[in-house]
Design brief:
The chain has 142 residues and is of the alpha+beta class. Strands 3-2-5-6 form a four-stranded antiparallel β-sheet, with no helix packed on it. A three-stranded mixed β-sheet has the order 4-1-7, with no helix packed on it. It contains one helix and seven strands, in the order αβββββββ.
Length: 142
């Protein structure tokens, strides 16, 4: 048994004075506009909720290096051990790699060619800048 779609009576559109294609076009345009407005509101509300609930990193740690450390990896692990950030050292004019962090205690590790070349712990206070030089130094004889 086939289901029949409801049919409009032939004179149903006579009251509006519009043809079926014109009415359908208006419904499509207004429906698209309503959907765009709803999506924009959802984006604004979502951004506002994230802004109110997520702290903004207020401190910056800048790792200074040289060309010998290009493609090395900097790992920053928070004190709970749950949030790790990894950044690669890239070839830039000054070989400075900035990382924005929230206040807290972190474990810093720099790996080059699979080897740990720098490992340290640091406390980051709110609103401060920290400059860390990880440039390799030649070995000296005692």
């Amino acid at each position: 048994m086939e289901a029949k779609l409801p049919q409009l009576p032939p004179d149903a559109l006579a009251e509006t004075g519009e043809s079926a294609p014109t009415l359908m076009m208006k419904l499509t345009v207004y429906g698209s506009l309503a959907l765009a407005v709803l999506l924009a509101l959802a984006l604004i509300i979502g951004t506002g909720v994230r802004w109110m609930t997520q702290p903004t990193p207020s401190s910056i740690v800048i790792f200074h290096s040289d060309a010998s450390l290009v493609d090395s990896t900097i790992s920053i692990l928070d004190s709970e051990g749950t949030n790790e950030r990894r950044v690669s050292i890239e070839k830039t004019a000054d070989f400075a790699t900035p990382i924005f962090l929230e206040p807290g205690t972190y474990t810093l590790t720099v790996r080059h060619a699979g080897n740990v070349i720098y490992h340290d712990y640091m406390y980051v206070a709110e609103g401060n800048r920290y400059d860390i030089d990880i440039t390799p130094r030649p070995a000296t004889r005692p």
